[in-house]
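Margin note: ligand = iron/sulfur cluster.
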Amino acid sequence: MKTEFTLAQLADPDIAEADKILRKCVHCGFCTATCPTYVLLGDELDSPRGRIYLIKEMLEKDKPPTAEVVKHIDRCLSCLSCMTTCPSGVNYMHLVDQARVKIENEYARPLPERLLRAVLAFVLPRPKLFRLSMILARLARPFAALLPGSAPGAATPSFFRRIKAMLALAPSALPAPGPAAGSVFPAVGARRGRVALLQGCAQQVLAPRINQAAINLLTRHGIEVVLVADEQCCGALTHHMGDDAEALARARHNVTAWVREAGANGLDAILVTTSGCGTVIKDYGYMLREDRDYAEPAAKVSALARDITEYVASLDLPAPQGRSDLVVAYHSACSLQHGQKITQLPKDLLSKNGFVVKDVPESHLCCGSAGTYNILQPDIANRLRDRKVANIATVKPDMIAAGNIGCMVQIAGGTSVPVVHTIELLDWATGGPRPGLN
Ligand code: SF4
Ligand code: SF4
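Resulting structure:
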């Protein structure tokens, strides 16, 4: 794609990067067929190619984003399905991230929307506040039906429609908190390795059982696990909302904490059980590339980051005692399959450990979770969830496995089939308890 940035514009490293990305796009439109919003809405401006044009215009003219541009960028799930499909290697992720930052900095959203976004950005990364908000949401849920919906034909969901969606996601009970930050779980028997396990924010409140299963499996196989004391939210939530300053501050904070831990006690890997977070931590090196003090340590942290399934595969687990014959529908989280290109590995691990693994039709399409998307764009998110659940039902599973808490909550909202994390099944198959739900 031909671009027309001026030399002055290209002196900005972010614009120079956008220019590089845009020039790779050859307008072929292959990406449209696998874009969930284009598949649902059929509007070119809700396709990757359409959004790339909008972003190009916005950046080249260096004008504040218009309401029309914001509408179509906001509808993008950042699922990155388009990046898997694109034959030219267009890095849509870095391009849309840049567009979101510009929107956040230069577009005046209506006050209720600004308030809602500010509350989400403040509460979600803080587990204690998030726990409290979930309790309050549960109490408020019976009154959700009284809230008005969006006006018919509205281009964006109303404030109350979004509050309704938020209340609907609150679980009816919360499990007890998991282990405290700073805990160290020694290896059972001879130590083969030492890893940090990302504690996560929403996940540690909604399903601490996931990291517990990872700790059980790892320690049982000779790996010491540390929950690094000074770790924070990885910044993924605010990064996807365009709040770059907040996201980068969190990235720097975590880089400092993990590099300190690696220097003091040694770390073979930083393990992540929430693939949405893993995708962002693996991108810290890129996010902080212009920061003289952090570029190198951030790149080191990114190189140490692994999805839990990548690390477990490297352990060469002993063969399981028997087969369970349990039919597991494997839901491939977008951040895992498109963001980290981990597709076959979790399925192979589950199969090797005795489960009958079924692929889900249209597995490239997002379930609609996408961070805060199911709150901010609830109608599109619900349509995608219903489509995902219907596809899952065709394989008649006993359980659904996924590697991302956001997907697990989203899918569980539309089915009575138990939804578990891949690591819970692997822990069970290698001597741990059968996954309980909460
Ligand atoms: S990230 Fe997903 S929703 Fe956004 S343009 Fe790409 S395929 Fe479409
Ligand atoms: S598939 Fe790639 S090159 Fe083709 S239009 Fe989409 S982003 Fe551009």
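The two ends are 50 Å apart (CA to CA).
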